[in-house]
Amino acid sequence: MKKALILSSALILLFSAFTKFDSGKLPSATIKKLDGSTINSNTISNNGKPMIISFWATWCKPCKQELDAINEGYAELVAETGVKLVAISIDDARTCAKVVTDVKSKGWEYEVYIDENQDFKRAMNVNNVPHTFLIDGNGQIVRSHNSYAQGDEDKLFEDVRKLAKGEKLTH
User: Fold this and answer.
1) Is pTM, for the whole model, over 0.70?
2) Regarding beta strands 30-33 and 111-114, do their DSSP bridges make them parallel or antiparallel, or are they unpaired?
3) Which fold has domain 2-164?
């Protein structure tokens, strides 16, 4: 019984990681911009080009390492592929004030939002951070990666380049 429950949970997570959002839009949740105003997460898009969504937190060292590593080649990747990275902080009311400070001190040029109530995190089935999604121009999650190890950004960049050329990714 326990094995069946674990297997069914794993299959649900696997299936949900590779689903296409309705009408190519992200799930609906209210998130905050850095200026404190709110938007709906389903309005985030990249006009038919690849998009990276990275869930992170100010207290998460691997999250910052990943975003720093991506930042090193980000401008070149944007110029080459048109990709957009959207960083979603899951910091709650106690720590969300640190988000703006971190973004400015790191010099990240990403769109950054705060998912203070973690509604978007839940809608995307994110259990821990860092959790990075690569979404193709049609709104389909084509890659989902949890945690960070040095060099993960190289595989991510390679996959973004493939998507930009219209190639399918192999898992």
Assistant:
1) yes
2) antiparallel
3) Glutaredoxin (3.40.30)
